[in-house]
Amino acid sequence: MAPSKTEELLIARSQTLTLLLQQRRFDTEYWTLQDEVLDLERAVAAERGVPYAEPWSLGEFWNGMTPYPVVLADALDCTITFAARPNRHAVLCFRAVAGYKSTDLSDETIEGHPLTGRGLVPHRAFRVKNSPWIAELEAIDSIHSQYDAKRWRAMQHYLLCFKDRMFEAVACDVQLLGLFNLLDEAFRRAVDHLALHASDS
Length: 201
What we know:
Helix content: 25-40%
Shape: flat
Order of helices and strands: HHEEEEEEHHEEEH
Number of domains: 2
Number of strands: 9
Oligomer: single chain
């Protein structure tokens, strides 16, 4: 099959980016071109119907240089606490989770990830489109007598690339529980949120 116009453009832009990298030209042109290449990678993946990493904006508080975020969870929700900007601690809650994982993929090993070359780069947050993990979880759930396809259409696959960890969750929604000056305060908020489920059961 002949490459599409998008694929041809991606190849040409990638070659130029590689040349700038070899020349160690990390100027405005380099970063602009890198973003264009990432967008083209995503467009090609979308054309092919394969998984890709779409940018997910978490605003000014996002800090992908956090080394070790802390994950707390129950059967319904999953919280993640990490150092945010400026010098605060963020608590994100993933609601109605179908699955979550924290792996030791870092900015030094991310090139081995299957989504590299499909829009994934270190230190950023993403939603995975055409997610094979969602498809796998839904296929397992489909044998249940109360299987609901609508539930799975609402699911999103979130991926957070920190400095030394990668966190992923399949969930229906995500909510910022707050920004805190002290880490202890952030942990208490995460625990209090999860404790509500325990008190309701």
